[in-house]
Write a structure and sequence with these properties.
The structure holds two protein chains of two kinds. Chain A is an alpha/beta fold. Chain A is about 40% helix and about 20% strand. The N and C termini of chain A lie far apart (about 45 Å). The longest helix of chain B is centred in the N-terminal third of the chain and has 26 residues. Classes of the chains: A alpha/beta, B alpha/beta.
């Protein structure tokens, strides 16, 4: 075991995949000579050279589209976007080309591309650089969507994403890059589509992912103490496909569910998870599912306003108390 | 680079058999598209259906210059491109009919034909987005040191898309073996290109990116052959992009649902007077390659062939419900390479 930063765990996964597969290459804004806008790709240019670690111009539609085309030709492109806020410019390449290639060609072509980079709401980055856009991708059949919360998960999931035969959107929370955690020194992968119970509990299941899950892990003891509820933390890790079995099993045990989502409530991941639970485990629910999400406004800049829009300890505590009929 | 460069007359090396094949293919594409139009009118083909009638010289020349390691990718006007790259008439027509025996089993339809084993990477529906995709294929050829080039077709309507400009820049800085061919039929759907472009001639948009560019008469199959042959050769040999503009006409609407009110009967007749098929046929007769009787026999054969093809498509079964689910993701366990 070694303690690694989230960014170092991702960098290790990139390095090992580039070593394992000569058809894998990394491209994106600032990934090579600058060593990555968030230093995820630090040292990779030196080790693998400019053929496989490639700086791009600021032209997301062009270079994400080019990565998608290279995947059609059989390469394993890992395309880094500087943030998923900018990746909206490349949605056509991802949604209309990558996601549809296999079905539309009846399996004659596949598109094993990974589009990855930072995401998330917060950090006083204001409205255009600070939002959670997972649902833009989770809506689309043909895509897989991953968003890890710990360095160990980030490493194992990124390796799986790069090896996956389908397009994978890999969303890394900007506020997690500097966080630390133990990572096994032996190489390993974590299968896509498997959730993880980050804390076992018997009273209330809190479902989340990415930075919100990281915060929940930190807040768990205090939440238990202040609500008297034994909380189970279910980290989705992969947002598409969802791990139906782990979700249903947890609900069958606790009978109460709170979902915490950093993004907006409308047409969101938490809405889909809620729907899955009411369809698959309705008889096990002792209370309506509650969701704690970002408030329904573009992100304001001023720190107290930003904090107000995001899920907070107090809002989550209140939701736990409500589903356990303390309020 | 405003002037059309002197392009070697590669076509003079074509055998009589190869010239005959060019002609037969043009007739074959015309009769296929006419059969598709009739079938569409009978409600056998659904959705959008974009015909290449008038532009067959381009598809025929592409088929003739295509080499083993090359790749081709295009837009939604893709039937003849598919036929030129080895999709059978049956497989193409069945796909248009949405049948299980179609090129992609009825999952793609008129706009989405694919034959990657012959280097044909599809049939794509978003105007201009096939260019970054095609540049990625060219990137793959260069990365894997494959001695081929990628030909990417776009229409005149695509030249103002950001994807096109972004990709020309990428192709130039990374020296990709990519030939971009604008089929300029002068109308982006119903909008005359000169009403929406500050760029006449269109091929000049490659100039600031330092990419070689020229235009040619896309209604003349031999000129088209010369330019495509030369551009693909340069891309293969120098690993640099080339940007071409084929000046051409489509004789039908943008799609089957287009009444074509944006041009007059006289304008359309002028365009039809440049029909590449009789022009080339008459030239082959003048040159003694074919007789007038040969032209008629070829046409009769292709007409009969398409009758058989339509009958086969009509009788073929639709795919089973559940086929789309089967191909939305890879089957489990595919693709692990550890």
């Amino acid at each position: 075991m070694s303690e690694l930063q989230f960014r170092e765990a991702l960098g290790r996964a990139l390095k090992e995949e580039l070593q394992a597969d000569p058809d894998a290459f990394l491209m994106g804004e600032e990934v090579a000579e600058y060593n990555g806008a968030y230093k995820v790709s630090e040292g990779l240019l030196d080790e693998f050279g400019p053929k496989r670690v490639i700086d791009t111009p600021i032209a997301e539609l062009g270079f994400v589209g080019l990565g998608v085309g290279a995947a059609l030709y059989g390469l394993r492109p890992i395309v880094e976007v500087m943030t998923f806020n900018f990746a909206m410019l490349s949605l056509d390449a991802v949604v209309n080309t990558a996601a549809k290639t296999r079905m539309m060609s009846a399996g004659k072509l596949s598109c094993p591309v990974v589009v990855r980079g930072p995401t998330g709401a917060g950090g006083a980055l204001a409205a255009q650089h600070s939002q959670s856009l997972e649902q833009q991708y989770t809506h689309i059949p043909g895509l897989k969507v991953v968003s890890p919360s710990t360095p160990a998960d980030a490493y194992g999931l990124l390796r799986s994403a790069i090896q996956d035969p389908d397009p994978v959107i890999f969303m890394e929370h900007e506020s997690l890059y500097g966080t630390r955690g133990e990572v096994d020194d032996e190489p390993y992968t974590i299968p896509l589509g498997k959730a993880d119970i980050k804390r076992e509990g018997k009273d209330v299941t809190i479902i989340s992912w990415s930075r919100q899950m990281r915060q929940l892990i930190e807040w768990a003891d205090k939440l238990v103490e202040e609500t008297g509820q034994d909380i189970e933390l279910l980290d989705l890790r992969t947002l598409r496909p969802l791990d139906r079995d782990t979700i249903v099993q947890s609900v069958q045990k606790t009978n109460r569910v709170v979902i915490v989502e950093e993004g907006w409530e409308h047409s969101s991941v938490s809405a889909t998870v809620s729907d899955l639970i009411q369809r698959e485990a309705f008889d096990y629910l002792d209370a309506p599912i509650l969701r704690v999400t970002q408030r329904d406004v573009p992100m304001p800049y001023a720190p107290p306003l930003e904090a107000h829009t995001l899920p907070s300890f107090e809002r989550i505590k209140e939701a736990v108390q409500t589903v356990s009929y303390q309020k | 680079m405003d002037e059309t460069p002197d392009i070697p007359t590669h076509h003079t090396k074509l055998s009589e058999e190869a010239l005959r094949e060019l002609y037969v293919n043009m007739v074959r594409y015309r009769r296929f598209e006419e059969a598709a139009a009739r079938s569409y009118g009978m409600g056998k083909i659904h959705g959008f259906c974009h015909l290449h009638i008038g532009q067959e010289a381009i598809a025929a020349a592409i088929g003739a210059v295509h080499q083993e390691h090359d790749a081709v990718i295009g837009g939604y006007r893709t039937h003849t491109l598919g036929l030129a790259l080895g999709i059978s008439e049956e497989a193409a027509m069945c796909e248009l009919f949405g049948k299980d025996t179609g090129n992609v089993r009825g999952l793609g339809g008129s706009m989405h034909l694919f034959e990657p084993k012959n280097g044909f990477y599809g049939g794509w529906g978003l105007v201009g987005q096939q260019l970054p995709t095609g540049a990625g294929i060219a990137f793959g050829q260069k990365y894997k040191e494959i001695p081929g080039a990628t030909l990417c077709l776009i229409g005149d309507g695509a030249v103002h898309q950001g994807a096109v400009h972004e990709t020309l820049n990428l192709a130039a800085i990374w020296e990709l073996p990519l030939v971009v061919l604008i089929e300029n039929n002068h109308y982006g759907m119903g909008t005359a290109v000169d009403r929406v472009s500050s760029l006449p001639p269109l091929h000049a948009l490659a100039e600031p990116y330092g990419i070689e560019h020229w235009s040619f008469d896309g209604m003349n199959v031999l000129e088209t052959y010369d330019s495509l042959y030369e551009a693909m050769k340069r891309a293969r040999e120098t690993s640099k992009p080339v940007f071409l503009e084929a000046l051409c006409s489509r004789f039908r609407g943008h799609s089957m649902s287009d009444p074509g009110k944006y041009r007059t009967r006289e304008q359309l007749q002028e365009e039809k007077d440049r029909d590449p098929i009789p022009h080339f046929g008459n030239k082959l007769v003048d040159d003694g390659v074919l007789s007038k009787d040969d032209l008629k026999t070829i046409d009769d054969e292709q007409k009969q062939r398409m009758k058989d093809v339509v009958k086969a498509a009509d009788e073929a079964p639709y795919p089973e419900v559940g086929l789309a689910e089967e191909f939305t993701h890879a089957p489990a366990n595919e693709g692990d390479h550890e």
